[in-house]
C-alpha cells in the first residue's frame, strides 16, 4: 500500500534526525537521507521543494523539542522567582547544546536554512518570548535600560557563545574551569544585574 505524502515526509525527517545525531550537519545530503528513509534518491524533491526545505523541517523538530524541555524546566514564565526560572532556562540551553550537538548547530545555520518557507520563525519565536518575559521580570528597573527584547537578545547571544566555546574546549582552556555553571551565572548577572527579589518581580506582573 502506498504511503501518504505526510507519512513519507515524516520518514524523511526522521531519517534526517537520526543521521544528524549520528554524523552531524555535513552528512545531511538528500541522497543519504533518502537512502535511510528507504525511498528513491529523487523522492525528497517530491515532498520538499528544496534541500533547504528538508533541512528546515529537521531543524524545526529541534526547536519543538527544545521548547518542550523549556516548558518543563521553566513552567509559567509569569510565575514566582523569575531569576531562578531564568537560571533554569540557561542550564537547559547549555545542556541541550552539549547533548544535541548536531541539532544545535543546524538550528542556527541560517546559511543552510534561509528561504525555506517552512516557518522556522514560528518554531523559534515562542522560546525567545519566554526569555523576554523572564528578563523583563528578573532584572532591576533602571533609567536608560534597553528594552527587554534587546536585553534578552544580548543574553541569548552570550549563552550561545558559551555553549559553542564550551563545545570547542576553548573556555575550559582559557578560564581554567571544568564547570560551566559559574560562566552561566556570570553571564546572567552581567546582563541583568543582581537578582530582583521575588516579591518585587511579582508586583511587576
Structure description:
- This protein starts with a helix and ends with a helix.
- The protein is elongated.
- The protein folds into two domains: about 1-45, Homeodomain-like (Arc Repressor Mutant, subunit A), CATH 1.10.10; about 50-205, Tetracycline Repressor, domain 2 (Orthogonal Bundle).
- The protein is mainly alpha-helical.
- It has helices spanning about 5-25, 30-35, 45, 50-75, 80-100, 100-105, 110-115, 120-140, 150-170, 170-175, 180-190, 200-205.
- It contains twelve helices and no strands.
Estimate what percentage of residues fall within beta strands. Answer: under 5%
Q: Rg, please?
A: 20 Å
CATH topology of the largest domain: Tetracycline Repressor, domain 2
The general outline is: elongated
Give the helices and strands as they follow along the chain: HHHHHHHHHHHH
How many individual helices?
12
Q: How would you concisely characterize the structure shown here?
A:
It is built from 12 helices and no strands. It is mainly α. It folds into 2 domains: 1-47, Homeodomain-like (Arc Repressor Mutant, subunit A), CATH 1.10.10.60; 52-204, Tetracycline Repressor, domain 2, CATH 1.10.357.
Please give a handful of descriptors for the protein shown.
single chain, 205 residues, Arc Repressor Mutant, subunit A, Tetracycline Repressor, domain 2
Amino acid at each position: 500500500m502506498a504511503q501518504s505524502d505526510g507519512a513519507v515526509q515524516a520518514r524523511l525527517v526522521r531519517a534526517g534526525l537520526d543521521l544528524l545525531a549520528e554524523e552531524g550537519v555535513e552528512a545531511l545530503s538528500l541522497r543519504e537521507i533518502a537512502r535511510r528513509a528507504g525511498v528513491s534518491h529523487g523522492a525528497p524533491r517530491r515532498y520538499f521543494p528544496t534541500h533547504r526545505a528538508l533541512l528546515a523541517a529537521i531543524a524545526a523538530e529541534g526547536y519543538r523539542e527544545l521548547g518542550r524541555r523549556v516548558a518543563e524546566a521553566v513552567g509559567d514564565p509569569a510565575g514566582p522567582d523569575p531569576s531562578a526560572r531564568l537560571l533554569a532556562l540557561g542550564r537547559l540551553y547549555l545542556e541541550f547544546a552539549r547533548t544535541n550537538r548536531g541539532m544545535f548547530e543546524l538550528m542556527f545555520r541560517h546559511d543552510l536554512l534561509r528561504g525555506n518557507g517552512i516557518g522556522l520563525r514560528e518554531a523559534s519565536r515562542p522560546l525567545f518570548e519566554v526569555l523576554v518575559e523572564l528578563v523583563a521580570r528578573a532584572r532591576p528597573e533602571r533609567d536608560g535600560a534597553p528594552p527587554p527584547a534587546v536585553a534578552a537578545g544580548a543574553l541569548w547571544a552570550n549563552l550561545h557563545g558559551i555553549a559553542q566555546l564550551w563545545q570547542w574546549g576553548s573556555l575550559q582552556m582559557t578560564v581554567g574551569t571544568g564547570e560551566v555553571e559559574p560562566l552561566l551565572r556570570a553571564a546572567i548577572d552581567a546582563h541583568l544585574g543582581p537578582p530582583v527579589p521575588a516579591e518585587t518581580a511579582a508586583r511587576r506582573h
